[in-house]
Amino acid sequence: MTVREIRLYGDPVLRTVTDPVTEFGEASRALAKDLLDTLDLPGRAGVAAPQIGVPLRAFSYDLEGQRGVVFNPVLTGTEGEQSGEEGCLSVPGLWFPTPRAAWAAVEGFDADGEPMRVEGEGELARCLQHETDHLDGIVYIHRLEPSTRRGAMREIRRSAWFASA
């Protein structure tokens, strides 16, 4: 089992738009395994490749009975609205109300390059949007309402993990 270290907010890899995966095979299967192994720790719903220091378009998810890895995901649809507290492994211990679509779908490829689609509502929809954002260099705090974001940034700057980064 290979659990990779999670990169924390402030690491430039989290603000970088990722590169598409162009070859599928041994390397993509190894990345998928690392993403799933890193996801397996308690309290984790999704992990994007940049969060483990890999600037490629891939993420893992495990929610509502659905589990897997999507390479080169494209958010193909969203509907409705939901609000609720959202957190991120790269912003540990902090949760903020984050608006998201109530339903979302992504299309991409599995580790062998076969087309796939994942869709869901509620927490799975939130996860699909959150992880796809990571691949575009967007951390969820950038989706917050301006006043909430200012407060979030104050809390981040005061946190022990940010001060030591």
TrEMBL record:
<comment type="function">
    <text>Removes the formyl group from the N-terminal Met of newly synthesized proteins. Requires at least a dipeptide for an efficient rate of reaction. N-terminal L-methionine is a prerequisite for activity but the enzyme has broad specificity at other positions.</text>
</comment>
<dbReference type="GO" id="GO:0046872">
    <property type="term" value="F:metal ion binding"/>
</dbReference>
<feature type="binding site">
    <location>
        <position position="88"/>
    </location>
    <ligand>
        <name>Fe cation</name>
    </ligand>
</feature>
<protein>
    <recommendedName>
        <fullName>Peptide deformylase</fullName>
        <ecNumber>3.5.1.88</ecNumber>
    </recommendedName>
</protein>
<dbReference type="InterPro" id="IPR036821">
    <property type="entry name" value="Peptide_deformylase_sf"/>
</dbReference>
<dbReference type="InterPro" id="IPR023635">
    <property type="entry name" value="Peptide_deformylase"/>
</dbReference>
<keyword id="KW-0408">Iron</keyword>
<feature type="binding site">
    <location>
        <position position="134"/>
    </location>
    <ligand>
        <name>Fe cation</name>
    </ligand>
</feature>
<dbReference type="GO" id="GO:0042586">
    <property type="term" value="F:peptide deformylase activity"/>
</dbReference>
<keyword id="KW-0479">Metal-binding</keyword>
<dbReference type="Pfam" id="PF01327">
    <property type="entry name" value="Pep_deformylase"/>
</dbReference>
<dbReference type="GO" id="GO:0006412">
    <property type="term" value="P:translation"/>
</dbReference>
<comment type="similarity">
    <text>Belongs to the polypeptide deformylase family.</text>
</comment>
<feature type="binding site">
    <location>
        <position position="130"/>
    </location>
    <ligand>
        <name>Fe cation</name>
    </ligand>
</feature>
<keyword id="KW-0378">Hydrolase</keyword>
<feature type="active site">
    <location>
        <position position="131"/>
    </location>
</feature>
<keyword id="KW-0648">Protein biosynthesis</keyword>
